[in-house]
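Cross-check.
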Amino acid sequence: MTLLSDQEITARLRVLKGWKREKDFLTKEFKFRRFMDGIRFINSVARVAEKLEHHPDIYVRWTSVKLLVQTHDEGGLTERDFELASSIEKAVLSSSRRRQISA
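Predicted model, tokenized:
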């Protein structure tokens, strides 16, 4: 797997709503009305991650869930990270938008 250049990362981020680059990670924070809405969201993310065999770091603070994505073996961002973020957007957010307050 090849690390992406700064220019490639910037270009790919333009199509991922709400995702940011924080050092060598893709990140996005999701806020929910209730704690259990966030937990259901995490379970959906886990299903997507298992299917792709690529797993985000997940941080939970009451009604907030923050995802951090990186190809740890490469120590930075690769195409695989953007594939995971895009898959999360497509598969997970479409079913959780009703409960999500903001992203």
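The first helix runs from residue 6 to 13. The CA atoms of residues 44 and 92 lie 6 Å apart. Passed to J.P. for a second look.
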